[in-house]
Amino acid sequence: MAAVYGQFDAVVSLEVVEHLYDPRLYAKTMFDLVRPGGGVVVSTPYHGYLKNLALAASGKMDQHFTALWDGGHIKFFSIETLSRLLSEAGFVDLRFARAGRIPALAKSMICCARKCQSALKTDPLSARKIDPLLVAGGGYPGSP
């Protein structure tokens, strides 16, 4: 895609990755589309341990993860799995915010990450940062 469309300072992907059969190809494509020093914003429904436990305890697991929803979500991400996906592609400085409900039961999560200037890949687990200001819904200092 980058050969056809070039590279961009930022790529935004909202509620897409959970519908894809090959999320690693998606992450690699985003990485190729972003200029060194540029960034991505990715959102997807949040599926952490406590949320899944609450779904199971409430008896709503089958309804939530139904296999009968034509064209629905086929992948379910936690902060850990989305971190790994984006880090494997080469993104660094991952920052997460959760949206809706209380954080442990959040509806969605948003990740902001950047492509480093040298575009070198890093260890997937060391690249992740959970920004307490974003988790609290305060945004970045100085941001609109």
Outline the structure in words.
Helix content is 30%, strand content 27%. By secondary structure, it is α/β, with parallel strands linked by helices. The protein has a single domain (2-135), classed as 3-Layer(aba) Sandwich (Rossmann fold), CATH 3.40.50.150. A 5-stranded mixed sheet has the order 1-2-4-3-5. Strand 1, helix 2 (23-33) and strand 2 form a beta-alpha-beta unit. Helix 2 crosses helix 5 (79-89). The protein is elongated and about 45 Å long. The model is unreliable at 119-125 and 130-144 (pLDDT under 50).
Q: Keyphrases for this structure?
A:
144 residues; 6 helices; 30% helix; Rossmann fold; five-stranded mixed beta sheet; alpha/beta
What is the CATH homologous superfamily assignment? Vaccinia Virus protein VP39
Instruction: Specify the helix fraction band.
Output: 25-40%
Radius of gyration: 16 Å
Average pLDDT over all residues: 84
**Can you summarize the main beta sheet?**
5 strands, mixed
CATH topology: Rossmann fold
As for the number of domains, it is 1
Helix and strand string, N-terminal first? HEHEHHHEEEH
The backbone outline, from C-alpha atoms, is elongated
Biggest sheet, spatial arrangement of strands: 1-2-4-3-5
| Number of strand elements | 5
